[in-house]
Amino acid sequence: MSLKPKFSLKKKLVLLITFIIIMLSMLAGLFSYKGINDVTKTMYLSRSKEASATIAALLEPEMVQRVKQQVLDIFYAAEDRVSTEDWGSPEFDAYLDKYAAIENSDDFKTIQRQLRLVQDNNNLKCAYLVWFDLKTESTIYLADGSYGDENSRPGCFDAIMYDVDREAMRNPVEGIAPDVTNTEEYGWVVAAGSPIFLNGELVVFGAAELSMNKVMEQRNQFLFLVIASLLLLAVVFIILGIVLIDRTIIQPINKLSDTSEKYWREGSASIRNEFSQLQIHTGDEIETLSNSMKQMEQNINEQFTKILDTTQKLIVTQEHAAEMDRIANVDALTKVRNKRAYDEKVAQLSEGIRNGEVSTFGIAMIDLNNLKPINDHYGHDKGDIAIQRLCRMICSTFKHSAVFRIGGDEFSVVMEGDDLEVAPTLIHQLMDEWKQKRNDASLQPWEQTSAAIGYAVYQEGDTVETVFKRADNAMYEQKTRMKAEMAQSPRREA
Questions:
Q1: Domain range holding 243?
Q2: What pLDDT score does 222 carry?
Q3: Can you say how many angstroms the Cα of residue 451 is from the centroid of all Cα atoms in its chain?
Q4: Helices within 59-172 (DSSP H only)
Q5: Model's pTM, two decimal places?
């Protein structure tokens, strides 16, 4: 008498295939999630670090130091500090009003404008300057490029510090390590910071935050499609197991199972062609299943190709933006600011005069002597050396002012702050240095630096143009006197 088995081959096959498909689906979902998550996070971590490095490279350390000192002076003097935990409260607003004067300063406005430039060009959630005060365990915000209510005004602080912040203070050269967070308030955000140094000392960290909400939504949609495809394949496998239970069906299924297991075991974060190399020609549903897996592999490869293309485009765009930021306002020969940067400075000063925010500044005009004779007799390369030597002297003298090369042999210095207060002394020192160089017979002609200089100081009712013209006229008057003096000595013309 034959006994009916408790579990028929058909049932065993269904159970076996069901188990295999469930496991493969879980592995596929796991590796897909891990692969896409790793690629996405790596890309955004790199973007945030590069954006913060752009902030650190773009901002002037001296300007940032001044703003930082102003904020910290008020912060330490305030006895009624209110942290961001009370954001929007009357007490919080009253506390921030202590820093209103800083927000109206030229330094702060320039920094905020540059932060917003980096923020807008790199699609950042926000770009800001931050300082970690170890004495009070506070995270203090100095400037923020955000708009509207999201802007953290100077003086805002969080009464808490994280390990990554303390590590940044211990090892500032490495900056704030890129970090990904997910909160109910902001969603997915990646942030990183780069240090800004002045004379080897840490000033602040330039930080950049990127929102990852959109890319995470796309990631979830893609994972949903992958899981749906795997579920569909699981159903097809189960149906085939119910209908086809003989060896002619089991062997093709084993081929598909082995290929799928190999595919996901070796990782999915790359272009793979395991299924495309599989040859199954049964003329039935298994061949259809094989073709479906090939299409799935093709779809996954296309998705990864799109991700890689997008990543490459982002890298190229950022490299181009960084290069444009570097060369847009820098003179190629002298490495100081160029005529374009000078025009921007003039526009800034003019706006400040109209708004009553600028009350004092000075302009010095400097014109190199003997450039044409040097070029004619010794070559333009020696003329370039003469221009560079003059530029170094100017920068060394006016250490706290912006120096611009506005023409072939013409330089302009916009004097503010300490340099403006002692402008006559600085100019006298510079002229003495030129005189020494000019009379030093041991130097080559292109090394005997000589120039004419004139300067003017802003007075009420002036425009930037009138100050410039007075300085320019003074420079040409001195140049005329120098030519008259040189006429008595045929050695050189002014």
A1: 9-35+216-308
A2: 76
A3: 39
A4: 61-77, 90-96, 100-103, 106-121, 163-170
A5: 0.43
